[in-house]
Amino acid sequence: MSATMVLQPGSLERFETPTAREPLWVKITLITIALGFFAIFLLFPLFSVFSEALRKGWGTYLAALTNRDALAAIRLTLLTAAISVPLNLVFGMSAAWAIAKFEFPGKRVLITLIDLPFSVSPVISGLIYVLMFGAQGWFGSWLAEHDMKIIFAVPGILLATIFVTFPFVARELIPLMEAQGTEEEEAAVVLGASGFQVFWHTTLPNIKWGLLYGVILCNARAMGEFGAVSVVSGHIRGLTNTMPLHVEILYNEYQYAAAFAVASLLALLAIVTLGIKTLVERQGRRQADESNTTENAS
Amino acid sequence: MATFRRYSPLPGFGLSLGYTIFYLSLIVLIPLSAVGSKTIGMGWEAFWSAVSNPRVVASYQLSFGASLLAAAVNVVFGLVFAWVLVRYRFPGKGLVDALVDLPFALPTAVAGIALSTIYAENGAIGGLFAEHGVEIAYTPKGVVLALVFIGLPFVVRTVQPVLADLEKEVEEAAAGLGASRWQTFVRIILPHVLPALLTGFAMAFARAVGEYGSVIFIAGNVPLVSEITPLMIITKLEQYDYEGATAVASVMLVISFILLLVINALQGWMQNRYSKGA
After folding, report:
1. What b/e string do you get for B142-181 counting C-beta neighbours within 10 Å, with b at 16 or more?
2. pTM (2 d.p.)
3. Which of A13, A34, A78, A90 has a Cα-to-Cα distance from A296 of 20 to 30 A?
4. What confidence score (pLDDT) does residue B269 get?
């Protein structure tokens, strides 16, 4: 919801006329409240992750990260993201193409259904796969006969992660592609471009920043998901523990420095994600400005 | 197909829509329907005894009470944040604007252990409160606190663009007609952002009700006191009580769907309101 927000340049100046301005003390009070809340609620927790991680020094920090189980958790987290993000990327592009470029009945319902995983509790997102593939689930006995395991194994973790990250790319792309309309694509088709060429040369350059943003959010959630993965993982050290689950185990064993060391990697991921998001928004704004000026010139 | 959709020269409609519906069914719709079918299959008595168990009822009270309170706090502070970010210039503004989304980007387990460490009795902020006999971590207060953290960006990011779009001329006209700044705020600005505030409130509330990772570490999970509803599902699963877990999940799902419809309606109201106003 935040990617499409673009503040117009010079938007601040619009409010700087004397008749529509608050007294200085109001302004200072509001800024103080916001900055105080920001420092206590956002900045301090983020800072504390790193300070707790390094409380016992770099030696302990590095040892916690190079521990065999920690490395296995990092590998599993990377694998999970590497599989779930591309699958949801393909889905997101396909859904956005159908929804944004064509008119058909039931479109709003389809969009609501795509958003569904966001309104489901993470715990339920895990539970549904237990009900399907768990020992007592729909396919439980069939899986047992064929000696296959989904729940309390890596496939379950993948499924739960795909579910919770399902809408990210689609919901970034749909409004973006709807706003861009179909004229450019139609012109390309008239000029003889194939379907793939239209997408690659006409649509993709227009949506690349939104696409990147969606992928980054999707990746952050895929690597950081806790509740859903916790239900299906079984918490087997070195085998089915992702990084967030490893953090939980260490924390519950009172190995605080180690827990925060692994957590600090996830916090870094969050910082990088927010950094790229800020850059992408700036790019998007620049692109919008450029298209505005070319339109004004012509 | 030709009658199903309006004609378009663009290729790929059948393929892209077909794949979308196939993947949506496979990953989302069919698995979610498992909750429905299992709930129907268990019979009324088993369902009722699971969802009306005193521990579960206490968890509804905590989950909904804490979520309402947290969403209300978010409305107040979210509006202040959005206002300050849209209207004022101050040092560190870029950083504040970027980090407002931290609760979206920070994995919930990381937020959870960070908040419970800070607000524990021996923590940096929890220690200050403990001196005055107030415990935050491992009580319902801790739950509210974690939910405030999680919900803040929802309100800020829905209100911010709406506030930025508000025409300065309207405020100047109000001032010109003799309205004080406070009257202009209450009569002009607040009604303008009200749909956005309500949408942000509903989104923060919906997220808070289902939230698990950031709450679970700070809640303390004391039966009848500080257990949230998602935890009850996990507890029942750990006892291999799949029916009980599914019953509680179905209650939560129904509430989530109602909230989703409410949010959709609010967003429709917002779209109408703001496209007309512009």
Report:
1. bbbbbbbbbbbbbbbbbbbbbbbbbeeeebbebbeeebeb
2. 0.90
3. A13
4. 86
